Amino acid sequence: TRAASVRSAMARHAGPRLPLIVKNLIPTLSSVFESQRITTTAFFAELLNSNVVNDLILLETMMDNMTGRQKDACMLVRMLALRGLGNIACGSPEKVRKHGAKLLASMVNGMDDKDDPNNLVALEAMSSLSKLLDHVEERDIQSMLLHIAIRIRPFFDSEQPDLRQSSIVLFGNLTKFSEDNCEVFFEQILNGLVTLLLHLQDPKPEVVKACKFALRMCGPNMGCEGLCDMFLNHLREDRSLHYGEFMNNVCKHLMQSYPEMLNRLILTNLFYFKSNWVDIRAAAPMFIGFLVLHVDEDHCQQVDLDQLISGE
Fold first, then answer.
1. Which of residues 119 and 17 earns the better pLDDT score?
2. Rounded CA gap, 114 and 75, in Å?
3. How many whole angstroms from its chain centre is CA 269?
């Protein structure tokens, strides 16, 4: 917050002097003192939120320095560097297109950070990537699309609600780029579908909101008009959801369009029988019940009754 206030004041009042200030601060990014690296990176990250760095031809210099901080020994510095790179989407959105490949590579590296026990760097990478996606060239994201989708999938069930929210929102945003990789990305949608539907019962409202968004975005890619319409009409942010009725109709469309998916959908639901969240634990057997209710007789043979009864 302090860095944001300072950045705002500097952008308003110190514009012409900023190039010299930035030049004098750059050496502190490599300081042996962690506190200096953190403070300068935080300041640069906030400065990148303003178009003033573009007007003063500072953006490339600052972007290169933020990219260079990705290997810093301090986790907070790495996190703040990613925040700065993501802030370019707000401060200089037209430059994101030009530097898209470089910025996306930084976000992917952040998600793959090996020294990030609480996933704070990954969280910043996912949040920043969602901001950048509105401005990148499609060709730049295509080569990374599958890797990102697979990488963020485990976060859907994280104990940390902000990780659940950010990863699910990012997944929804990724679907905008799935046309050229339709079949490949459809597989990722199927992998996440049960989780997104169950987390509509998440205890955190912000995660429920993220699931609604992601499902609305997934709908057009699922090849089922009825399901797409349901997601668009029933999962609006301002609309309350009658979950049982909604899931009954969702399962009817799923079994009409993808009856061969029955066993796969059941197996994923079984995993949630032991969920830590009571509402999700209750939703999983209901989900299975509606699937079995709506599947035709020919596909009933897919169901492993012993496995279903044991709940494993």
1. 119
2. 11
3. 22
Q: Residue 55: what pLDDT?
A: 72
Architecture of domain 1-136 in this structure: Alpha Horseshoe (1.25)
d(CA 207, CA 32): 40
Helix 100-111 × helix 75-91 angle, to 10°: 150
Decide: 221 and 185 in contact? Cβ < 8 Å: yes
pLDDT tens-place string over residues 132-151: 999 998 888 988 888 999 99
Q: What's the pLDDT band for 9 if we cut at 50, 70, 90?
A: low
Number of Cα atoms under 13 Å in the Cβ half of residue 201 = 22
Tokens, residue 312? 């494993």
Mean pLDDT of the chain: 89
Tokens 């300081």 sit on residue: 31
CA angle 157, 163, 205 (to 5 degrees): 80
Six token digits for residue 236: 């609006």
Per-residue pLDDT, averaged over 162-184, amounts to 87
C-alpha distances out from residue 272 to 200, 209, 241, 276, 286, Å = 13, 20, 21, 9, 11
Tell me the C-alpha distance between 223 and 226, whole Å.
9
User: Cβ contacts of residue 38 below 8 Å, gap of 6+?
Assistant: 74, 76, 77, 80
* Domain boundaries of the chain, sorted by first residue: 1-136, 159-311
Q: What is the pTM of this model?
A: 0.88
Neighbouring residues of 247: CB distance < 8 A, sequence distance ≥ 6 = 197, 283, 286, 287, 290
How many Å apart are CA 54 and CA 19, to the nearest integer? 11
